[in-house]
């Protein structure tokens, strides 16, 4: 005998189109060796990934992944070094968006 809960099956919601790339609204020196990044929120994004470079894009390092777009802290930066930073949204049907336009900031 097959028992039923009485509830109908519902498909897991997911984005049907690729995610838009976020825009970096602000990059501010938060404390020594830390930068605060604020992004535009993206619909259907689960999290946001940050990457940065200090050598003109030859090598990129991870700035981490955050579940929020409004307050992402990138730590362990070298004071006096200028960094180029990009962000992308994670989630949706394609797994990730394109990288955002770059911004540049000098860590203090």
Offer a few descriptive terms.
Immunoglobulin-like, mainly beta, single chain
Which secondary structure elements does this structure contain, and how are they paired or packed?
Elements: E1 24-31, E2 34-39, E3 45-53, E4 61-66, E5 72-74, E6 82-91, E7 95-96, E8 103-106
Antiparallel strand pairs: 1-2, 2-5, 3-4, 3-6, 6-7, 6-8
What would a concise description of this structure say?
This protein is mainly beta. It has no helices and eight strands. The protein has a single domain (24-106), classed as Immunoglobulins (Immunoglobulin-like).
What does this protein structure show overall?
There is one protein chain. With 108 residues, this protein is mainly beta. Helix content is 0%, strand content 44%. The protein has a single domain (24-106), classed as Immunoglobulin-like (Sandwich). It has no helices and eight strands. It is elongated, with a radius of gyration of 18 Å. The model has no long low-confidence stretch (mean pLDDT 90).
The biggest sheet, with number of strands, parallel, antiparallel or mixed sense and barrel status, is:
5 strands, antiparallel
Helix content: under 10%
The total count of helices amounts to 0
Rg (C-alpha, Å): 18 Å
CATH level-4 homologous superfamily: Immunoglobulins
Order of helices and strands: EEEEEEEE
The CATH architecture would be: Sandwich
DSSP strand count: 8
State the end-to-end CA separation.
Answer: 69 Å
- Name the quaternary structure: single chain
| Structure classification | mainly beta
Large-scale geometry: elongated
When the domains are counted, the total is: 1
Rounded mean pLDDT is 90
Enumerate the spans where pLDDT stays under 50 for 5 or more consecutive residues. Answer: none
- CATH topology (level 3) name: Immunoglobulin-like
Approximately what portion of the residues adopt beta-strand conformation? Answer: 35-45%
């Amino acid at each position: 005998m097959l028992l039923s809960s009485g509830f109908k099956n519902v498909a897991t919601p997911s984005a049907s189109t690729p995610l838009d790339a976020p825009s970096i609204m602000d990059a501010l020196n938060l404390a020594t060796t830390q930068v605060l990044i604020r992004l535009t929120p993206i619909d259907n994004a689960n999290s946001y990934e940050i990457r940065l470079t200090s050598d003109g894009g030859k090598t990129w390092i991870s700035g981490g992944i955050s579940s929020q777009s409004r307050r992402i802290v990138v730590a362990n930066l070298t004071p006096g070094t200028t960094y180029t930073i990009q962000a992308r949204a994670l989630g949706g049907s394609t797994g990730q968006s394109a990288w955002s336009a770059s911004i540049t900031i000098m860590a203090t």
